[in-house]
Amino acid sequence: MTERIGMDGDAGRLRGRCLCGGVSLSVPADTRDVDVCHCGACRRWHGGPAMVLHAGGDLRIEAGDDRVRRYPSSAWAERAFCAVCGSGLFFRLTGDDQAFVPAGLFDAIPGARLHSEIFTDAQPGWYAFAGRRERLTEAEFLARVGTAG
Ligand SMILES: [Zn+2]
Ligand SMILES: [Zn+2]
Q1: Which residues keep their CB under 5 angstroms from ion ligand 2?
Q2: How far is the CA of 76 from the centre of ligand 2 (A)?
Q3: How far apart are CA 106 and CA 48, in angstroms?
Q4: Strand-strand pairing, 33-37 and 68-72
Q5: What is the pLDDT of residues 73-89, one digit of tens each?
Q6: Which ligand minimizes its atom distance to the CA of 117?
Q7: How far is the CA of 16 from the centre of ligand 1 (A)?
Q8: For the segment 37-70, what is each residue's pLDDT rounded down to a tens digit?
């Protein structure tokens, strides 16, 4: 929401926006790992597999906070979208404040790379991403992040 100046200004942030432009947000400028999630909830919400940047606890809504709607998609996470254009804005683990932002919101992501694929056991057979990277099933992923149920 706030415009920051000085050492912590725009130079240190990667900015994205929704389709209507009403909501803009930012993540640290060195964010470049794109993670793919094949789970059923992500595919329903995104219309396909999710491709998201891991912003950690450092996601900022720079403008348009009044347009941000939050949907509690599970007991431990929420999904936010723009009330005007419907663009997905972020997925957030409410317990430890870890945010994941759709990579498509950003015009450019310097050094972007596909980092990992998760919920691979939920992936339909009719698409696949080329190349090799870490792949985790639902059970493997949940064991790693310590979230169950
Ligand atoms: Zn919008
Ligand atoms: Zn997912």
Answers
A1: 37, 39, 42
A2: 13
A3: 18
A4: unpaired
A5: 989 899 999 999 999 99
A6: 2
A7: 11
A8: 999 999 999 999 999 999 999 999 999 999 999 9
Please list all protein residues whose beta carbon sits less than 5 angstroms from ligand 1, which is an ion: 18, 20, 22, 82, 84-85
- Token pair 């005007």 in the structure block, residue: 84
Question: Helices then strands (H, E): number in the chain?
Answer: 2, 11
The answer to whether 54 touches 116, Cβ cutoff 8 Å, is no
pTM over 0.90: no
CA–CA gap between residue 17 and residue 19 (Å, rounded): 7
Phi, psi (degrees; rounded to nearest 5) at 141: -65, -45
Tell me the ligand closest to 91's alpha carbon.
2
- The ligand that comes nearest to the alpha carbon of residue 50 is 2
Instruction: Domains for the chain: give ranges and CATH numbers.
Output: 6-123 (2.170.150.70)
